[in-house]
Amino acid sequence: MRPKIVIVTNNILEHTEIKSLFVKEGFEVVLFSDINTNTIELISNLTPSVILIEFDVDGHDGIDICYQLKMEKKTEAFVVINSTQPEDYIQIEAFKAGADDYILKSVSKRVLLKKINALVRRSRLTTLFHQHALISHKDLVIDRESYTVLKGSAKLSLPKKEFELLYLMFKNPKKIFSRTEIYHAIWENVENYNPRIIDVHIRKIREKIGDSYITTIKGVGYQLTKT
Known about the structure:
The chain has about 230 residues and is an alpha/beta fold. The chain is built from eight helices and 14 strands.
C-alpha cells in the first residue's frame, strides 16, 4: 500500500511541484489549499502517514493547525511544518504545538523527500509494533518484545512456554484450540506429545493471571474467554 501524505499549502506553483515530487516517489498525495472549519476533520479521516503544512496558509497559522491535529489528538500522523521563518522562537512554538519536524523551505527538494521518507518508515515501524508486539484482552496486555504480561499496573513474568501459549490465544481470541494444536504450535518436539502437559500449563497460567481469561471447552480444548 502506498504511503499517504497530506500537503496543506496555498502556493499553487509549489503545490504542483511538491505533488509531482511525492507522486514520483510512490506517495498518494492529498492537497488542501482551502482551510475551513471542516479541514481538520477531513485530514484526520484520511489517516495519512505524514502531514506537511506551510507555516502561513491563506491567513491561517500552520502552527495552530498543527496544534489542532496533534495536541487535540485528531491524528497519529507525523506533522511537519514547512516554513521560510528561521527564527528559533517560531521553531520552538512549532515543536510545542506537537510538530515532529520543522523544515525550512531553503532546503532542497531532495533533502525534504529524504526527511519525509524517514518519517514514513518510522510510521510503519510504529504501526507494526502496535499490531504485533502489544496485544490486549480485558485488563491484560501482552508485550511480545519483553516477554512480559501487564495486569493493570502489575508486571507478570511467565516462563517461555506459558507466555507463548497465552500469546497464541491472545492472537486468535475467537478460536477454540485443541490440546494437539497448542502443542504443535509451541513445542518443537512433537513426537513426545502428552495432552496433559497443556492442562498443566493452563493451570499455571491461571494461577498467575486469574481464572477469568481462559475458558475450558469440554471435549475440545481451550479458548480465550469472551469479553
